[in-house]
Amino acid sequence: MLPDLYTQTVTDHRRSLIAWSVGIAAVGLMYAGFYPQVAEGGMADAVNSYPDAMREALRLDDMSSAAGYLGSSVFGLLLPLLAMIFGITFGARAIAGDEEAGYLDLLLAYPLSRTRLALQRLAALATGAAAIGLLVFLGMIAIRSGADLASISIGEFAAQCLNLTLLAITFGALAIGLGGATGRRGPVLAGTAGIGVLTYAAHSLAGVIGADWLTYLSPFHYYIGGEPLRNGMQWADAAILVAISAVLILLGLNRFNRRDLNS
What we know:
13 helices; mainly alpha
């Protein structure tokens, strides 16, 4: 039942899924490996001279600790943005890309509902996102002692990597939902990327501009606002990311099931 299209999608995209997973993990490990040099090289002292607003926006207020460094540069900037891009690009192809290519008509000629098609594509996207989170987690554990990251527990790394997976799924769900609603890949890519940039800016700058409420509108707040690298799993934040993904898919399906496909 479920595995047919799901398996086909994972198989068809296996090379890109492997490339995304290995690439994102490699970027994360490379920058995480710089922590000993950052902690001992006086960079933390230099960052303290930056304006308060800049340090708050870029989460640079604690570069001397492992959790502070990883929470600012690695898990606070590089990995979430790369995970977001993965979710957007995969999600945009899931429905809108196939519809523009004329492939969606062929798929729906089989006894396959539009809802099942979208959910199986979402499951394939979630598999890729889980692979990214798992590889980043295993890599961090592998370098944890050598890179002086032992102050962060294995459970805290697992919590942050799970949130990374959920963040990628959230933006993938947004792209799949918009693709189901519009059937046009270009607007899906542009719209989802724009929302991603705006929500990242809202999370980073809300405190700086005195509008703290804005951060609660951003998925990035629920991804890292609870500081999993210090506090472990924040189940309420993870549940909110899951709920956002579910709502986005349901809204997209509502439109996808009622509109005519683009020819």
